[in-house]
Amino acid sequence: MADRPQNRKKNGKRRPVYDQARDTRPSRPADRSNVGYPSATTPGRHPVTNPNYDPDAPRPSRYAARDTGSGSYPDNSIQFPTGGRPAQKQNPSRNRAPNAPRQNQRRTSAPQSQRPRNGQARPQNPNARRPASGQRLRPTQANLRDPARREGKKKRKMTRKALRRRRAIQRLTALAMLLCLPLTACQKQQKLYSATWFDLFDTVAVVQGYAASQQDWDRQTAAMYDDLAHYNQLFDIYNHYDDVVNLYDVNAQAATAPVRVGNELYAFLRWCKDTAYPATDGATNIAAGAVLRLWHDARESDSPAPPAADAIAEALQHINIENLILDDAAQTVCFADPDMTLDVGAVGKGYAVEQAARAAQARGLTSALLNVGGNLRAIGTKAGGKPWTAGVENPWDDDPAYIQAVELADGDSLVISGDYQRYFEYEGVRYAHLIDLTTGYPARYVSSVAVLAHTEAGGLADALSTGLFCLPEQTGRTLADRNGWAALWMHTDKSTAQSAAWPQ
């Protein structure tokens, strides 16, 4: 063993596993001394590995089948020790012959000078100590390796299948982390912003949402404001705007000649006549401008008072929506009744909010809640995927401020109509701005009505809330249940009733 350190690699590195196919060492003893192998004392003979080793004993060819548990080896491959583990019983699940030698046994070391030539047959030693079937030879103390080498043996014993499985798991884990990084980064970059406007639809408009930066938010809200301002001008019945044909111009000219209007205004009028009006059984009627104008002037006067009864009766004669003539080919509007006028206050805000929200989503806005005078529209969700939450306002002037919280999914709208929003009092009686067109006076059936509409409704929530408020409750509940609308009625005695589709 004195010459063994000569054959080790420098710096304590482990000698590589012997591969006969790659062995380029000279086969002659005289040449082997030049590459670190001392010449053999007995040419052509194997080294002695234990006291009982017989070099002259016959040894089977390394290509012949081995049927004994011999401790000798048919080739020059290196076998590793067992690390001093006790003898183990044979595992019957292993697919090997009962007497086949274990491939991981290692014979005791021998002087390098006595190594046989490559391919030379090693004689069998009949007196050598052999392990019992299924057992391993205990290595001598000289063969025990340091812990680092024993750990290296354990790693080498890992099967290829286990290695492939471990590497596959590592790759999948790395891929999952890479996929999560952009999402996490986006969530961290999303911040809550808001914008408030006071010059739209004669009310307060507020929009809040999440964006990656203040610049992105300002860009989105600026475009949204432009859309809302555009519809505000189109639906204005009190003012004229240059380069815009709006409802003020229609009311002033349509009784004498057809008025050609733009695409947005014409589509809106067609929707009001064909969709909103029949959906509410006529309770929401944009042709009722003659009656609504009377109550508007009374409410805005210095001394508010109800209009004269005969004036109301006369105005009710000019609210037939069939007198609104729409020409799809020419895209014109004409009044068959010269005393008829249009008023879209009951449906205009909801329709404009829906169109502005859709345009914002098309521009890339993914998270926002728009509130224009109580007309709420959800765009996407809040950060983290949570839905937007809105409160149903208390109509009875006491605490709490909200009687119920409602979750809004992407595209949902919540609109509330009540007698507490716009009104005046005369001789102790409250006169709200929502008019029952069957009587010509403010509706008094309930205190408030809330409607929750999904995206397929397309801005109909505003028209429905007004219509259900102006209808007897039983009539409205029948209408809501027949169409699957989610509605909540709030009574003057502070009780509530709801349709089947209203969230519990």
Question: How would you characterize the overall build of this protein?
Answer:
The protein is an alpha+beta fold and 504 residues long. Among the domains are: 1-146, no CATH class; 158-188; 244-343, T-fold (Orthogonal Bundle), CATH 1.10.3980. Helix content is 28%, strand content 17%. The protein has helices at 29-32, 147-156, 160-189, 214-234, 247-253, 263-279, 289-300, 309-315, 348-362, 461-469, 473-483; strands at 191-200, 203-211, 259-260, 324-327, 332-335, 367-372, 375-380, 388-393, 402-408, 413-418, 423-426, 429-432, 435-436, 441-442, 448-453, 486-490, 496-498. The strands form five sheets. It has an eight-stranded antiparallel beta sheet with strand order 1-2-6-7-10-15-16-17. Strands 3-5-4 form a three-stranded antiparallel beta sheet. Helix 4 (214-234) packs antiparallel against helix 9 (348-362).
List keywords for this structure.
alpha+beta, 3-stranded antiparallel β-sheet, 17 strands, disordered N terminus
Set out the fold topology.
Layout: H1 29-32, H2 147-156, H3 160-189, E1 191-200, E2 203-211, H4 214-234, H5 247-253, E3 259-260, H6 263-279, H7 289-300, H8 309-315, E4 324-327, E5 332-335, H9 348-362, E6 367-372, E7 375-380, E8 388-393, E9 402-408, E10 413-418, E11 423-426, E12 429-432, E13 435-436, E14 441-442, E15 448-453, H10 461-469, H11 473-483, E16 486-490, E17 496-498
Antiparallel strand pairs: 1-2, 2-6, 3-5, 4-5, 6-7, 7-10, 8-9, 10-15, 11-12, 13-14, 15-16, 16-17
Helix pairs in contact: 4-9
